[in-house]
Amino acid sequence: MTTRDTMELKEEAIRAQYEAALGMIFGFDHAPRLAKPLVEAAQPERSPGLGARPRFRSTVPGMAARSTARPGGVRLAERVEGLSDGLVSQVQAACLNALRRSLAIALAMGETFSAQSGLAELKRANLEGRVPEPRRGEFGELLAGEALVVLFTFGNALAYLIAPHVGTATVELGEVEEVLTDNAPLALQGVLWELDQDIGALATDDARLVAVVSAFAEALMKQVAIRADGGARVSVFTAGSWKVEADGLTLSGFKPAKAAKGGMIAMAFKKPHEVVGNHIAKYQSLRLAKMLMAYDFERRLNPFADAQRLLQGGGVSVPLPELLDRPD
After folding, report:
1. Residue 238, Cβ neighbours under 10 Å: how many?
2. In terms of CB atoms within 10 Å, which of 119, 126, 136, 141 comes out highest?
3. Burial per residue of 297-309, b for 16 or more beta-carbon CB atoms within 10 angstroms, e otherwise
4. Taking CA 13 as the corner, what is the angle to CA 135 and CA 98, rounded to the nearest 5 degrees?
5. pLDDT tens across 193-203, in order?
6. Beta bridge partners of 7
7. What's the pLDDT at 179?
8. Which pLDDT does position 261 carry in this prediction?
9. Are 184 and 153 in contact (CB under 8 A)?
10. What angle do CA 176, 177, 182 make, to 5 degrees?
11. CB neighbours of 188 closer than 8 A, spacing ≥ 6?
12. Cβ 194 vs Cβ 72: under 8 Å
């Protein structure tokens, strides 16, 4: 059994990625390579004279917030807000906050992986055009490994953070297809594009929005774990463990974290005639249920048993099952 020394993924490192995370939520362009579009790109409706939403410039190389006026623009914030009638609901705000926080955690985890695996040094050498030829293969493999780590961390954190808002609504999602491993920024763009498509196609209200986000996060983790099992350079991630103190989230390789799900439990009660089964077993179950409901826990007596004894004392013999079956 492998012993993990849990390290802290520092809050300042996560918050440093908030601006980049917001940039991805508010808008970027992406041309799908593996998946097919389900819905059209979100088109904002603005009244004349109203300014556009403030844009946030990403600090991650290759993730600068560009114009999303062209087809293929991804605007998750507007997609989510489009479910409301003008004001963002608490559920929608919770989803957007979970998305921002999950993206920031994933980007911070990517930087940690990059620093500990030697990828950061190779990135600097690549910018200067001095990556040795023998290490170019390693550079590409580490970029793919970082992409998988970032994707799984994003899905893991998103599933964990959205869990308290999950209710009884369910949706049917297929596999996550737009899983790109060229580099971490492109990988996040791909899955956010697909999430935007799923929300547009399946989320008709707040309950289904949460269901889509939760199901997508679970499906993403499953798909990335399969890809990472193919020998990617992710040993730094799989051998370690990181704790996000503010959220109580522990990242332990490609193992999903679990959080308590919220929402009220809805039970569908069935009447006896609606239950299909052995009629004798149903009859006995009803008898037992009546005895339990009538039991006096203070006196530790069953009134039906007392009634049977009283009737027998008066010379009337009534079996207990028959007494239980009497409506009066």
Report:
1. 16
2. 119
3. eeeeebebeebbe
4. 110
5. 999 999 999 99
6. 242
7. 95
8. 55
9. no
10. 115
11. 24, 63, 103, 106, 107, 150, 151, 154
12. no
One-letter amino acid at 134 equals P
DSSP-based three-state secondary structure for 250:
strand
CA-to-CA dists, residue 46 to 23, 78, 196, angstroms: 20, 12, 20
Spatial neighbors of 41 by CB under 8 A, at least 6 apart, are 68, 71, 72, 73, 74, 75
* Sole residue written with tokens 């493999």: 141
Q: Greatest CA separation found in the chain?
A: 106
Sign of CA dihedral 20, 24, 28, 33: positive
Strands (E), the chain: 6-8, 28-29, 73-74, 241-244, 249-251
C-beta of residue 187 within 8 angstroms of C-beta of residue 151:
yes
Residues 6+ apart with CB under 8 A from 213: 95, 98, 99, 158, 162, 195, 199
| Of 41-45, 268-272, 280-284, the least confident | 41-45
201 neighbors 38 (Cβ within 8 angstroms): yes
Q: Which among 169-173, 260-264, 295-299, 301-305 has the top mean pLDDT?
A: 169-173
φ, ψ dihedrals at 8, nearest 5°? -100, 130
Rounded to two decimals, the pTM is 0.70
What's the whole-number mean pLDDT along residues 289-302? Answer: 74
Residues 6+ positions from 244 with CB-CB distance below 8 Å: 9, 11, 14, 105, 157, 250, 251
Query: What is the residue whose two structure tokens read 């929300």?
Result: 199
Lowest mean pLDDT among 69-78, 125-134, 159-168: 69-78
Rg from Cα positions in the chain? 28
- 191 contact partners, CB below 8 Å, separation of at least 6: 151, 154, 155, 176, 178, 179, 220
CA dist., res. 275 & res. 156, Å (int): 39
Q: Is 12 exposed, middle or buried (0-12, 13-18, 19+ CB in 10 A)?
A: exposed
Give how far Cα 269 sits from Cα of 157, 170, 272, Å: 35, 20, 10
